[in-house]
C-alpha cells in the first residue's frame, strides 16, 4: 500500500483470512469491494491447525481428520465461487499456529492489506478470528482491515468511505497510521475527523488547566495534516474527555463514521503505558465499532 501523503493508495495484493464463520462471511463483501475498487488480487487463506480438530473432537481419528479436511475444501470452494470474476487464488495451509503461516503468505504474495472478520469473543476458547485477530494486527507489517461483530451486513458500500475517523494519542505508534487516514480521506473525498481523548483520572481538575490542555491538543491535531493536502473538506478536530475506547465509539456513531483508523503498538509493547491505543482500547474499539477498523502497527 502506497502511504505517501497526497498519493493515491495502491493495492495489488489483498489477503482475505477466513475460518468460514459468520464473521468471515461478513468480511467477504468488503474484500470483494476493495479488490474491485483498487484492481487487486484476492488471496483467500484458511489456516488448518491442530486446534481446529481439538475444538470439535477431543481425540480425533484419522477418519475424522480427513472428514474435517474435506469439509474445509468444500467451504473454500464456496468462498472461491464468490471471488469469480476477480483475480484470486484460494489457499488452505496447514500449520502448528496461525501467525507463522500468515507471515509466510505476506512475504510470498507481497501482500499490501489483510482483511478479516472477528467475532470479538472473550471466552477461553477463541477461534481463529477471535484472539488471533489481535495477534495479527499487532504483528502485521501491513495494514489490517478488521470487520467486527458490530458491523451490519450489507454496509460495504463498494469500499467507499464518507467519514474517516482517525484517533491518536500522539505516540509514534499511533501517529504512524496518519498517512493511511489522510490518504483514504483524499481517495474517497471523505470528511476526516482527527480525534484525541484526554483521560481525566482525578475527580477535580482546574478548569483553566483542562482548557489549556484542550487548546494544545487541538493545535497538535491541526498540524497532522498539511495545508496543501487535497482533501474534500477541511479536517475537523475532536477533543473529548473520559475513557478513550468509549469516546472513540461514541463519536464514530454520532458522526456516522464508516471507517476508523488506529495506529497500534506491536505485540511486545502492548502492555505499556495506559493510553487510548493500548491493548484493551484497540480490542474494545474493534469488537464494538459499527464500522470497519483499519489498524497499522507503528
Essential attributes:
298 residues; alpha/beta; Rossmann fold; 2 domains; globular
Helix content: 25-40%
Number of helices: 10
Main sheet attributes: strand count, strand direction, barrel closure: 10 strands, mixed
Radius of gyration: 20 Å
**Largest sheet, spatial ordering of strands:** 3-2-1-4-5-10-9-6-7-8
Terminus-to-terminus distance: 15 Å
Class inferred from helices and paired strands: alpha/beta
Low-confidence segments, given as residue ranges, are 122-129, 270-277
- Please tell me what the overall shape is: globular
What does the model show?
The chain is an alpha/beta fold and 298 residues long. It folds into 2 domains: 13-147, 3-Layer(aba) Sandwich (Rossmann fold), CATH 3.40.50.620; 160-297, HUPs (Rossmann fold), CATH 3.40.50. It has 10 helices and 10 strands. It has helices spanning 22-38, 50-54, 62-82, 98-108, 131-139, 172-175, 178-188, 207-222, 244-255, 279-288, and strands spanning 13-17, 41-48, 88-94, 113-117, 144-147, 163-167, 191-198, 236-241, 259-264, 293-297. A 10-stranded mixed sheet has the order 3-2-1-4-5-10-9-6-7-8, with helices on both faces. Helix 9 packs parallel to helix 10.
Overview in brief:
The protein is α/β, with parallel strands linked by helices and 298 residues long. It has helices spanning 22-38, 50-54, 62-82, 98-108, 131-139, 172-175, 178-188, 207-222, 244-255, 279-288, and strands at 13-17, 41-48, 88-94, 113-117, 144-147, 163-167, 191-198, 236-241, 259-264, 293-297.
Amino acid at each position: 500500500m502506497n502511504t505517501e501523503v497526497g498519493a493515491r493508495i495502491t493495492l495489488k495484493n489483498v489477503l482475505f483470512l477466513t475460518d468460514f464463520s459468520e464473521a468471515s462471511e461478513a468480511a467477504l463483501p468488503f474484500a470483494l469491494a476493495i479488490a474491485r475498487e483498487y484492481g487487486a488480487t484476492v488471496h483467500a487463506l484458511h489456516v488448518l491447525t491442530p486446534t481446529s480438530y481439538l475444538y470439535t473432537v477431543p481425540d480425533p481419528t484419522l477418519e475424522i481428520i480427513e472428514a474435517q479436511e474435506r469439509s474445509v475444501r468444500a467451504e473454500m470452494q464456496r468462498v472461491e465461487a464468490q471471488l469469480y470474476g476477480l483475480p484470486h487464488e484460494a489457499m488452505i495451509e496447514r500449520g502448528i499456529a496461525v501467525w507463522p503461516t500468515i507471515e509466510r503468505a505476506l512475504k510470498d504474495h507481497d501482500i499490501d492489506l489483510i482483511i478479516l472478520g472477528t467475532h470479538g469473543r472473550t471466552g477461553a476458547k477463541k477461534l481463529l478470528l477471535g484472539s488471533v485477530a489481535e495477534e495479527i494486527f499487532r504483528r502485521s507489517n501491513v495494514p489490517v482491515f478488521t470487520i467486527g461483530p458490530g458491523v451490519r451486513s450489507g454496509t460495504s458500500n463498494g469500499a467507499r468511505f464518507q467519514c474517516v475517523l482517525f484517533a491518536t494519542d500522539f505516540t509514534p505508534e499511533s501517529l504512524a497510521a496518519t498517512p493511511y487516514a489522510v490518504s483514504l480521506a483524499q481517495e474517497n473525498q471523505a470528511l476526516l475527523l482527527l480525534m484525541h481523548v484526554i483521560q481525566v483520572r482525578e475527580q477535580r481538575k482546574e478548569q483553566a488547566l483542562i482548557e489549556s490542555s484542550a487548546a494544545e491538543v487541538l493545535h497538535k491535531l491541526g498540524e497532522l495534516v498539511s495545508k496543501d493536502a487535497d482533501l474534500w473538506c477541511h479536517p475537523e478536530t475532536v477533543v473529548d474527555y473520559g475513557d478513550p475506547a468509549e469516546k472513540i465509539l461514541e463519536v464514530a456513531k454520532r458522526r456516522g463514521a464508516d471507517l476508523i483508523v488506529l495506529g497500534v503498538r506491536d505485540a511486545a509493547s502492548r502492555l505499556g503505558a495506559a493510553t487510548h491505543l493500548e491493548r484493551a482500547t484497540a480490542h474494545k474499539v474493534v469488537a464494538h465499532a459499527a464500522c470497519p477498523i483499519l489498524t497499522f502497527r507503528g
